[in-house]
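Retro notes, item 3 of 5
We never archived the inputs for the coenzyme A complex last cycle. Fixing that now. Sequence and ligand:
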Amino acid sequence: MAEGLGIDIVEIQRIRQLHERYGARFLQRLFSPDETTYAFSHRDPYPHLAARFAAKEALIKAGGHHKPLPWTQMEVRLDSQGKPSLYLEGSPATSHLVSLSHTTDYAVAVVWWKGNP
Ligand SMILES: CC(C)(COP(=O)(O)OP(=O)(O)OC[C@H]1O[C@@H](n2cnc3c(N)ncnc32)[C@H](O)[C@@H]1OP(=O)(O)O)[C@@H](O)C(=O)NCCC(=O)NCCS
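Structure as it came back at the time:
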């Protein structure tokens, strides 16, 4: 059975600068509407956006899908406890686990999967 592990760290300031430069186009290309809505429900959306971007890159590093997907189709959703999970092309990625963390400056994500990518 195959498995994979990926990690990524993102400078939060970089995400802020990309948004300032490219505006809504940047958000629409990288994040699902729900991810953007969640991030902007916070006073500072950028740690949450950066963590989600890190999760997408960690998924790619983990070799976690059988074909390249648009950024928006690699999605982090939260359960009622606030625990994140991955959705790929709108469906729960049941073979995958994801964890996020952020400080003032950096966001990190780890993705692990086992089974069929
Ligand atoms: C959940 C908790 C560990 C997050 O740690 P933190 O140091 O505050 O924050 P971090 O930056 O490291 O992590 C934040 C991320 O943790 C994730 N997270 C939140 N709740 C989580 C949970 N219950 N399980 C796993 N991950 C969780 C989220 O993805 C969040 O990022 P997001 O809001 O951008 O999605 C912390 O809030 C905590 O200990 N809470 C008290 C216990 C608790 O509420 N437990 C939930 C019920 S069991």
